Amino acid sequence: MIEHRFRGPPQSGNGGYSCGVVAEGVSGVATVTLRRPPPLDRPLTLTGDGEQSRLTDGENIVGEAAQSTLDLVVPEAPGLEVAVEASRRYAGFEAHPFPGCFVCGPERAPGDGLRIFPGRVGNTDVVAAPWTPDDSLRGADGMVGRRHVWAALDCPSYFGLASAPLALLGRLTASIERLPEIGEPLVAIGWPIEVEGRKSFAGSALANREGEVLASAAATWIEIDGLPL
C-alpha cells in the first residue's frame, strides 16, 4: 500500500517513492517504468524474482522493474553551505504544480515531507538542496529506507531540467551505493541530460558532506497537457 503521506499529485503516489516500491522485487541497480498513476491507500500486489518485478492493482499494472545498469556522469556536488544558498532560489516557492508532494512540496511540514527544495547553483546546469533524513524515514536495518532514497532521487532531476515543463515521472533507473544514516547531512543534486519531444531526461544524486556519492539516478519525464485530477 502506498499511503497518502507518500503522494506526489494529490491522488497518486510520488513517482520516485512508487518506483522504490516496485524496485523492492529486484536486486541491485533497477530500472522502473510506471505504467499508470500509482493509487493511494489501497492494497497492491508486488511480485518479483530478484531480476524482474511487477506492482499491480487488481488486473492493472502500476509499474514494472528489471535489473539494469546505470552509466551516468555525476557532476561534483557542491558543499552544504552552497546547497543551502541554492535552495533559497527554489522555483517551487514561487509556483508549484503539486505543493503537497512528499519530496519537494513546500506545504509539507518537517518530519512529514522530505522538503528537498533544489535551486540553481550559480550559473551552472546543476540544482542543489540540503537534506537531512529524519527518524520517520528509518528502515528495518536502522538506515534510511530504500523507498525514501528512491523518492529523494526523484524531484531534484525534474528541477534540474533546463526548462521544466509540466511533467510526470515515467521511468527511473537508480543505483544505491550506500544507504544514508538517519540524521546524516546530505546534498541532493539534479541536472539536465537531453530532450526528445515530450520526453525530458535528467540525472540526480545524493552526496555526503565529503562529496561521496551515495546514490544516483537517471530519470525520464513525460510532458503532460494539464494537471491530473
CATH architectural arrangement? Beta Barrel
Distance between the termini: 20 Å
* Main sheet makeup: 10 strands, antiparallel
Q: What general form does the structure show? A: globular
In terms of DSSP E residues, the strand content is 25-35%
- How many helices in DSSP terms? 4
Strand count? 10
CATH H-level homologous superfamily name: Acyl-CoA thioesterase, double hotdog domain
Order of helices and strands: HEEEEHEEHHEEEE
Overall domain count: 1
Query: pLDDT average, as an integer?
Result: 96
Question: Can you walk me through this structure?
Answer:
With 229 residues, the protein is α+β, with helices and mostly antiparallel strands. It has one domain (4-223): Porin (Beta Barrel), CATH 2.40.160. Helix content is 13%, strand content 31%. It contains four helices and ten strands, in the order αββββαββααββββ. The chain has helices at residues 15-23, 80-87, 146-152, 155-159, and strands spanning 30-34, 45-48, 52-57, 60-67, 119-120, 127-131, 167-176, 186-196, 199-208, 213-223. A ten-stranded antiparallel sheet has the order 2-3-4-1-7-10-9-8-6-5. α1 (15-23) runs antiparallel to α3. It is globular, with a radius of gyration of 16 Å.
Q: In brief, what are we looking at here?
A:
The chain has helices at 15-23, 80-87, 146-152, 155-159, and strands at residues 30-34, 45-48, 52-57, 60-67, 119-120, 127-131, 167-176, 186-196, 199-208, 213-223. Helix content is 13%, strand content 31%. Strands 2-3-4-1-7-10-9-8-6-5 form a ten-stranded antiparallel sheet.
